[in-house]
TrEMBL record, chain A:
<dbReference type="InterPro" id="IPR003599">
    <property type="entry name" value="Ig_sub"/>
</dbReference>
<protein>
    <submittedName>
        <fullName>IG c499_light_IGKV1-27_IGKJ3</fullName>
    </submittedName>
</protein>
<dbReference type="InterPro" id="IPR007110">
    <property type="entry name" value="Ig-like_dom"/>
</dbReference>
<dbReference type="InterPro" id="IPR013783">
    <property type="entry name" value="Ig-like_fold"/>
</dbReference>
<keyword id="KW-1280">Immunoglobulin</keyword>
<keyword id="KW-0472">Membrane</keyword>
<feature type="domain" description="Ig-like">
    <location>
        <begin position="2"/>
        <end position="89"/>
    </location>
</feature>
<dbReference type="InterPro" id="IPR050150">
    <property type="entry name" value="IgV_Light_Chain"/>
</dbReference>
<dbReference type="GO" id="GO:0005576">
    <property type="term" value="C:extracellular region"/>
</dbReference>
<dbReference type="Pfam" id="PF07686">
    <property type="entry name" value="V-set"/>
</dbReference>
<keyword id="KW-0391">Immunity</keyword>
<dbReference type="InterPro" id="IPR036179">
    <property type="entry name" value="Ig-like_dom_sf"/>
</dbReference>
<keyword id="KW-0964">Secreted</keyword>
<dbReference type="InterPro" id="IPR013106">
    <property type="entry name" value="Ig_V-set"/>
</dbReference>
<keyword id="KW-1064">Adaptive immunity</keyword>
<dbReference type="GO" id="GO:0002250">
    <property type="term" value="P:adaptive immune response"/>
</dbReference>
<keyword id="KW-0393">Immunoglobulin domain</keyword>
Length: 107, 118
């Protein structure tokens, strides 16, 4: 099975900073990659699908890129409400594995 | 609006069984693939199972294969997860989620807690 990794596992940044999270697949998955945000105590929320398409209603400061094995989620200007854990998920074929998550907080 | 409401969680002894339900509303349930995802306390998300719109295609994570059974009743707008031979490591919040047709899970329920303990 294809394994998903994320880096870093956690980060602390200042409000307004540009934040980049990396997701790597152990084999190519084309662009079948989704990103989710889970705020503390809340349900996961879809941010990006097909590696780079922003889900409706998601602020434009979030963006995704990549294809094949390497993907990135970027927050262009970190806001206090972005404190959350971010997960990538492969969706090319089962099992639809999630990455281990990246916890983002404010410095 | 799209709503997914899970039920059926609770405390069960190791080796026991539990059946989770997910009631869907606000969309044409029979048009969408569905998944179950779980999250152990303080841990990350783990995909558990997937079922196609007609129920003809089903997948499971290796960790639950042979013990869990996913099913759906499109007439009742409901998704199910039958969980047998439960283990302590199955303790988690179980979410049902809709595959939005964009190779992603676009709506999630609030989750139901399953605790496996003697």
């Amino acid at each position: 099975d294809i394994q998903m990794t994320q880096s870093p596992s956690s980060l602390s940044a200042s409000v307004g900073d540009r934040v980049t999270i990396t997701c790597r697949a152990s084999q190519g998955i084309s662009n079948y990659l989704a990103w989710y945000q889970q705020k503390p105590g809340k349900v996961p929320k879809l941010l990006i699908y097909a590696a780079s398409t922003l889900q409706s209603g998601v602020p434009s400061r979030f963006s995704g890129s990549g294809s094949g094995t390497d993907f990135t989620l970027t927050i262009s200007s970190l806001q206090p409400e972005d404190v959350a854990t971010y997960y990538c998920q492969k969706y090319n074929s089962a099992p639809f594995t999630f990455g281990p998550g990246t916890k983002v907080d404010i410095k | 609006q799209v709503q997914l409401v899970e039920s059926g969680g609770g405390l069960v002894k190791p080796g026991g069984s539990l059946r989770l339900s997910c009631a869907a509303s606000g969309f044409t349930f029979s048009d969408y693939y569905m998944s179950w995802i779980r999250q152990a306390p303080g841990k990350g998300l783990e995909w558990v199972s997937y079922i196609s719109s007609s129920g003809s295609t089903i997948y499971y994570a290796d960790s639950v294969k042979g013990r869990f059974t996913i099913s759906r009743d499109n007439a009742k707008n409901s998704l199910y997860l039958q969980m047998n031979s439960l283990r302590a490591e199955d303790t988690a919040v179980y979410y049902c989620a809709r595959d939005g047709g964009t190779y992603s899970l676009d709506y999630w329920g609030q989750g139901t807690l399953v605790t496996v303990s003697s």
